[in-house]
UniProtKB/TrEMBL annotation:
SUPFAM superfamilies: S-adenosyl-L-methionine-dependent methyltransferases. This is Similar to mRNA 3&apos acc. no. Q4IPA4. It comes from Pyronema omphalodes (strain CBS 100304). Coiled coil: none annotated. Transmembrane segments: none annotated. Signal peptide: none annotated.
């Protein structure tokens, strides 16, 4: 069992079900940070994604009556794999990641493997009903090659679902100043990732083309706005925004060191000042900031189709 943070423990207790209402109300009002809920970004992103998808773990119309084998690529803390294993007890679920950071106590139909998904796959062709990936965009050097592994190992009629968030700070009503620290920090992030040969900015078109080029059919892309910060009035969105702000806060601190300091060689005090300012921007509920969550899925044609 993970010995992680308070938030991870809460998830371990409840799965990704909602945190108890009274606890949550307090969290949203006080801010998750002040309540000590600084969880892993992977778990937090998972919660945000699930809330945005109205509690659903996937949108692909898989045969939910009897899924057999499900694969989660770059599973991180394994939270999605664990949840899907609980949802479909008939399925064997495998979560694969470079790092062995998954918990040991998991549903009996879920297991984890440590492997590099960019190396040739050892899974048999046509052996999965459903393959899922989330927030891997900047991790993958060669998407066409990965897509061809995914396509080969899906069974005919099986689905691949790809979920990505954009590392962005958008605003429709001009409340977020164009020269604020948050925007500057994200510009640096993009520049740094590009200098490392990464930093694709996913759009619905890019995701659709990626799936279609690999041979998938009936491709659908659903895009949802994800508020960042607890500025929305509506309770559900406020909760999503409060969690998303935590993801951004933790991400900013981590990426500042890796991308700005290491890749771009920006001076440490400039980076630290920018991060501090960006975190203040995230807390400012006058700034109506959001980004996008894109969910793309497609089906491998059945033989003879
Ligand atoms: C941003 S995290 C996303 C985690 C998880 N999918 C989620 O949304 O909660 C990216 C994960 O991909 C893993 N990863 C990156 N490159 C990988 C590779 N080539 N093979 C396997 N895992 C990889 C990282 O170790 C990390 O856990």
């Amino acid at each position: 069992m993970s010995t992680g943070t308070k938030l991870e423990k809460e998830y371990n207790k409840h799965g990704t079900e909602e945190i108890e209402a009274d606890t949550e109300e307090k969290l949203i009002d006080d801010g998750y940070e002040s309540a000590g809920y600084v969880g892993s970004t992977s778990s937090l992103r998972s919660a945000v994604g699930k809330y945005l998808m109205n509690g659903r773990l996937h949108l692909a119309p898989i045969d939910t009556s009897n899924p057999q084998r499900i694969l989660d690529l770059g599973t991180g803390t394994g939270i999605w794999a664990i949840d899907i294993a609980d949802s479909y007890p008939s399925a064997e679920v495998i979560g694969v990641d470079l790092s062995p950071i998954q918990p040991q106590w998991v549903p009996p139909n879920c297991r984890f493997e440590v492997d590099d998904i960019e190396l040739p796959w050892t899974y048999q062709a046509n052996s999965f009903d459903f393959i899922h990936s989330r927030n891997l965009e900047d991790c993958i050097k060669d998407w066409p090659s990965l897509m061809s592994s995914i396509y080969r190992c899906l069974s005919p009629g099986g689905y691949f679902e790809l979920v990505e968030t954009t590392p962005d700070a958008l605003c429709d009503d001009r409340t977020l100043p164009s020269d604020c620290s948050l925007r500057k920090a994200l510009d640096y992030y993009q520049e740094g990732m590009k200098s490392a040969g990464r930093g694709n900015f996913v759009t619905p078109t890019i995701l659709r083309e990626r799936l279609e080029a690999a041979g998938f059919e009936s491709v659908q892309v659903v895009t949802v706005k994800q508020p960042i910060g607890s500025w929305p009035k509506e309770r559900r969105l406020k909760r999503i925004g409060a969690l998303a702000r935590l993801v951004y806060t933790a991400g900013l601190e981590a990426y500042a060191n890796a991308v700005m300091k290491r890749f771009l060689k920006v001076e440490a005090d400039i980076v630290d000042g920018l991060v501090k300012g960006a975190i203040e921007d995230l807390k400012n509920n006058r700034y109506h900031t959001y980004n996008y969550l894109h969910i793309a899925y497609g089906r491998k044609p059945k033989l003879g189709e």
